[in-house]
Amino acid sequence: MMELNSLRQFLVVARLQHLSQAADELRVAQPSLSRTIARLEGELGVPLFDRSGRLRLNDTGKLFRDYVERSLGELDAGRRAVAEAAGQGLGSVRLASETFLTLTGPLAAYKRAHPSVEIELHWSPSEDMARRLRAQDVDLCVASQPIQAEGLESARLFDEAVHVAVPLDHPLAGRDRVSVDDLAAHPFVTARKGHWLRRLLDQLFAARGLTPKIVCESDEHSAIADLIIAGLGIGLVPAFARGNIASVPVAWLAVDSPECRRTVTLYWSADARLPTAAQRMRTTITDWNWAG
After folding, report:
1. What is the share, in percent, of the chain residues with pLDDT greater than 90?
2. CATH numbers and ranges of domains, the chain
3. What does the alpha-carbon distance between residue 148 and residue 86 come to, in Å, rounded to a whole number?
């Protein structure tokens, strides 16, 4: 009989596709984790991973992963529903996003209104959000670009332009608008792969058969403006963030492309029952004055 702990360990290995990293995250010995995966494959009668070279989840493993995620998600949802019905408070709400700078206002308002609710924040790239929602790994997701997937409901929060920030002494600084071709020769400071800002940059250039010249990838997005000021490169900055760093001495240039925008959208699973805490957070976020 399959044990819940074995299934949870399988999901970590499936996500990381690396035994030693999964063992470190789970705080178990790697040989023990290997035996758990082998025992699970033995019960199923098929391998779940390809082991030629780097460990990779095979098609059967992906199929099994989806069912395990949904099953464990339903179990966790049941526990939360029972706790709520038993009068143990509103419980918790789990929110995933590509960036939380945008959400500080509604999150603060929600916490003031519901101080006893535990809020779990998870960073997640948009390509993982649909799967995480269907698996009930998270309750709500906020994506900076549309998610094309079935089984989701959504509410658009706001749409905004994304500009290019350049140092004040940069050759482009005197211009109001630039094309992607104008930017091709200039080095960029940007986010790492997986972040929506990096994805937008790559898409803008790929649509014209170009590749951006990236000199710095940063996880510290607040440092990007400082690196631009220092003259290390130029970078894409959304209008929302521009408002928060209005005093930064850089020039802001509009990009002459209709694709250089972001549409911020709230998503939730169409099939899962949202806990009361998540329903109230959804209302707080959708009712927020984003234009303010």
Report:
1. 44
2. 4-70 (1.10.10.10), 93-156+264-286 (3.40.190.10), 158-262 (3.40.190.10)
3. 37
